[in-house]
Amino acid sequence: MLKQVVPNLITLTNLSLGIAALCFTMEAQYREASLTILMAMVFDGLDGRLARRFKTTSDFGKELDSLADLVSFGVAPALLVYAAVLCRYGLWGFCLAIFFALCGAIRLARFNILNCQTHFVGMPITFAGSFLAFSIFFKQCLIIYVYPLLVVLLSILMISNFKLPKL
User: Fold this and answer.
1) Is residue 112 a contact partner of residue 66, using CB atoms and an 8 Å limit?
2) I need a surface site. Which of 4, 49, 114, 118 has the fewest CB within 10 A?
3) Of 54, 19, 48, nearest to 33 (Cα)?
């Protein structure tokens, strides 16, 4: 029984960290929000491995993982980069943040129905969201124009048809 519950608890930890990142962002604690998203990435890597190791993979776990990923690596990084940088662009920055989250949702929906075992189609949302969150640590060093370009590039890569090998 415990073997069936542990992977889902890890997924819920990922989701909790995504929610915490949203709360940190609302409090203008951008470094903490970034760290929280990066911590969620660690838990996201654990849940599937444990489910496969315990032979407890399920459709429920797969859907729960996607919902957690949308919050932790789609919505949280989009809000973070909007609040920290893109808000300076007004409506355009707002639209870019929404575009990132929407592309992440499309990416996850496609991932769930394709069920490819050997490769990813498009950049995984976990990488895109974590990379965007990590970039906030370099906010002072980067030219402000980098962020809109980065958001557009990562968004397009998530919904692209590029095949990337699963590691």
Assistant:
1) yes
2) 118
3) 19
Q: What is the pLDDT of residues 38-53, one digit of tens each?
A: 999 999 999 988 988 9
Q: Which residue has the tokens 């769930």?
A: 112
The neighbouring-strand residues paired with 165 are 119
pTM over 0.85: yes
CA–CA gap between residue 44 and residue 67 (Å, rounded): 11
152: number of Cβ within 10 Å: 14
Query: What is the Rg, in whole angstroms, of the alpha carbon atoms belonging to the chain?
Result: 16
Task: Find the DSSP H helices in the chain.
Answer: 2-26, 30-53, 59-69, 76-84, 91-114, 125-135, 146-159
First-to-last alpha carbon distance for the chain, in angstroms, is: 29
CB 156 within 8 A of CB 100: no
pLDDT tens-digit series, residues 114-137 = 877 777 888 999 999 999 999 999
